[in-house]
């Protein structure tokens, strides 16, 4: 949620490249909405956004859900990710909805979807992740001073 404590964290270079922005937090629903900007540089020879870029967006969407829903106490390290590409993505704004289906002490189950500005479902993914406590992160990347 813009203006939240999450805005205080430094954004990694990949989030900068994808123009990642936190749009909405739904804690009861264990869900976040984020946005990305798919740039011309992301286009493949097909003329549409390359699938690997969409997978990166999905990974950042699902990871954001886990981090936000855990109140910044855990971050996910992907074990696996299954992606289904459903429609071609064009240059422009893309919205990701990520859900932390279940977060345990060591494993999390996540899901995500990407849609364009018209609401067309572009891709969907599920992921299993190793949940790592933020205690192992550099101090500048922590929300809590545990």
Structure commentary:
It is a single chain. This protein has 146 residues and is of the alpha+beta class. It has one domain: Roll (Thiol Ester Dehydrase, Chain A). Helix content is 17%, strand content 42%. It has a 6-stranded antiparallel sheet with strand order 1-2-4-5-6-3, with helices on one face. The longest helix is centred in the middle third of the chain and has 19 residues, at 51-69.
What topology emerges from the helices and strands here?
Layout: H1 13-18, E1 21-26, E2 31-38, H2 51-69, E3 74-85, E4 92-103, E5 107-116, E6 121-133
Antiparallel strand pairs: 1-2, 2-4, 3-6, 4-5, 5-6
In which range does the helix fraction lie? Answer: 10-25%
Q: How many distinct folded domains?
A: 1
Instruction: Tell me about the largest β-sheet.
Output: 6 strands, antiparallel
Shape: globular
Mean pLDDT: 90
Could you give the count of β-strands? 6
State the secondary-structure class: alpha+beta
CATH architecture: Roll
What portion of the residues fall into strands of 2 or more residues?
A: 35-45%
Low-confidence stretches: none
Order of helices and strands: HEEHEEEE
For the record, what CATH class applies?
A: Alpha Beta
**With helices defined by DSSP (H or I, 4 residues minimum), what is the helix count?**
2
CATH superfamily descriptor: Hotdog Thioesterase
Q: For the terminal residues, how far apart are their CA atoms?
A: 23 Å
Give the strand order, joined by hyphens, for the main sheet. Answer: 1-2-4-5-6-3
| CATH fold call | Thiol Ester Dehydrase, Chain A
């Amino acid at each position: 949620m813009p203006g939240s404590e999450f805005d205080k964290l430094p954004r990694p270079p990949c989030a900068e490249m994808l123009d990642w922005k936190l749009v909405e937090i739904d804690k009861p629903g264990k869900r976040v909405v984020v946005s990305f900007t798919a740039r011309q540089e992301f286009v493949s020879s097909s003329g549409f956004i390359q699938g690997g870029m969409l997978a990166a967006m999905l990974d950042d969407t699902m990871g954001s859900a886990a981090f936000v829903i855990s109140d910044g106490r855990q971050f996910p390290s992907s074990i696996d990710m299954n992606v289904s590409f459903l429609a071609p993505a064009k240059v422009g704004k893309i919205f990701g909805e990520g859900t932390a289906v279940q977060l345990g002490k060591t494993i999390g189950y996540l899901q995500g979807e990407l849609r364009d500005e018209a609401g067309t479902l572009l891709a969907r993914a599920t992921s299993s992740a190793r949940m790592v406590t933020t205690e192992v992160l550099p101090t500048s990347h922590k929300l809590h001073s545990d």
